Amino acid sequence: MAPGTRGTMVYVLAPAGLAPAGEDAPQWRARMQFNGGEDPATGSAAGCAISYLVARGAVPSGLRIHLRQGVEWTGPASCCSLPRS
What we know:
Helices cover 15% and strands 33% of the residues. The chain is of the alpha+beta class and 85 residues long.
């Protein structure tokens, strides 16, 4: 956390490599950790994260993106989006 802030949550986002056979969407992984716990599926954060990736040029606008969260936790959740800038 940044000095002087009182943040208690961390949302981590990382590329997950190549898409599985039959899928063309880039794969991304996310984890939402807070106060010693973890949220296995944060849909509202996933949408913002995908928008962030497009705004920063990490993925092109108009390309379908597959974001998975909760894989390491209780069970995976997926969010697929076709963002446009």
